[in-house]
Amino acid sequence: MHPEDIPSSIMYLEKGLVKQYVISQKGSELIIHIFKPGSFFYLMWAINNSPNSYYFEALTPIEIYKAPLEKANMLMKQEPEILYDFTSRLLKGISGVLKRLESLVLDPAYIKLVSLLTYFAKSIGEKVGETVTIQLPLTHKELATWIGTTRETTSIQMESLKKKGLISYTRKTLVVKNLKRLENEMTPNVL
Q1: This prediction's pTM
Q2: Which of 19, 69, 74, 164 is the most buried (most CB within 10 A)?
Q3: What's the CA gap between 91 and 84, in Å, rounded?
Q4: How far apart are CA 142 and CA 145, in angstroms?
Q5: Residue 68: enclosing H or E segment and its boundaries?
Q6: CB half-sphere exposure, 146, CA atoms < 13 A
Q7: Closest CA to 92 of 130, 60, 127, 119
């Protein structure tokens, strides 16, 4: 989906991962969010008719269900539990955006990266014991756009995490070797 596309439906992601992003006037990509199964697209448009200004791209094979706007709005008005669920999702999203904004402005690159990898591990990772596998092709450049740094800075921080034995990665998989230890890296005393 492109920013100029006018949505005709609310979409529900049953399987896979979808990236939401914008492209700057200079051609740089800024990743806004990665949707996981159980997510809805176009809620801002559906609720208050805000135009779509984002690109949506499948990162993995996906399965999506569509619901016409009129039926979805009628359902939300008639079923308070469904409206509550949508509101809860919206507030969780706003909370995540606020935390990301705070981190982008206040935290050093290392903490930003650790925070992002922890977020990915908890939201889209597959946990087995203390190890969490993230099956997502993430380049250092893409990670840099998430945390607002250069690719070079991100590469240095990734190598630091790798040398500490906290992560390993290939082109399509990132493994957090111990999520608790990675989370502990966000405390100031480790810098």
Answers
A1: 0.74
A2: 19
A3: 10
A4: 5
A5: strand 63-68
A6: 22
A7: 119
Residue 136, token pair as written in the block? 């997502």
**What's the DSSP call for residue 107?**
S
Mean pLDDT of successive 10-residue stretches along the chain, which has 191 residues: 83 91 84 86 76 88 90 87 85 82 85 91 87 88 88 95 93 90 78 46
131, 177 Cβ separation under 8 angstroms: yes
Fold exhibited by the domain 9-104: Jelly Rolls (2.60.120)
Q: For residue 20, what is the enclosing H or E element?
A: strand 18-23
- What one-letter code names the amino acid at 77? K
Kindly report the backbone phi and psi dihedral angles of residue 128, in degrees, each rounded to the nearest multiple of 5, phi listed first.
-135, 105
Domain boundaries, the chain: 9-104, 108-190
Residue type, 82: I
Apex CA 63: angle with CA 61 and CA 68, to 5°? Answer: 145
